[in-house]
UniProtKB/TrEMBL annotation:
UniProt-recorded name of the protein: NADP-dependent oxidoreductase
Residues of the Enoyl reductase (ER) domain: 15-287
Superkingdom of origin organism: Bacteria
GO molecular function, one term: oxidoreductase activity
Transmembrane residue ranges: none
Amino acid sequence: MTTMRVMATDRVGPGAALRPHTLPVRRPADGEVLIKVMAAAVNQADLGMVAGNYRWYDELRLPLVPGYDVAGVVEAGDWEIGAAVIASTGHSRTQVGGYAEYVTLPAGHLAAAPANLDWVEAATLPLAALTAHQALDLLDLDAGQTLVVNGARGAVGRFAAELAVARGISVLTPDRTTTPAPASVDAALDVVGGPRARAAFAAVRDGGRYVTAVPEFWVPGGQFTAERGIEPTIVRAEPDGRRLDEIVRAAEAGQITTTVAKTFALTEAADALELLRAGGVRGKLVLVP
């Protein structure tokens, strides 16, 4: 194959919309892998990209193909041909989008797909689970310590809570109507920002730990000034095949669970983003090329 179908936009910001494009398939260089995409999950980050509320490490290249999460089959490159894999595209660095028939990525982004999950389920893991896993490592809690995770109905919050329980950490998951007592827990992980982020921060004891997955440029309240001996930290998920291997093992052991709300054809990517933008979705939206 030399070309592929993708869903892309020629500009970002107000009025930007995804449309079908035909782009070249990039053959893998040394240390890279070409993947035939079987499923690609839709994330809030994708909304931010199209809206122009996203920050890349390099100047944005157009057309923009969104998408952080892929599950698929290795077609060529530095991996076993025909292997089932999952990967984070690392879009902020690579600008490689998963809303495509093929992606070419560094081999270090990949892990073998979980044997117990289908393509659609497997595609929901990379970005959300990597964020959760890296957040827990930043929090560095011991078994028996207490952790508040707000937004536990979402993928990052749910994975974080499940992975924390597997580590022996005691997890509290307050909803919109409940607030933990002030200074009552060892640490908090914020995945929603705003007032609920402030409530999670207030729940942490003096000298405790607080991590947020919400960049301050995206949702105000995602980050705070250090106080009471607590130094707020932002987790920025980075592609990491070895870490993704650990996540796969957790999925195969039943320690983390996936939830899929709806699947869409690749050409329906704009509809999937609009549904996500509207809110109220319980579970991941996934594109199937």
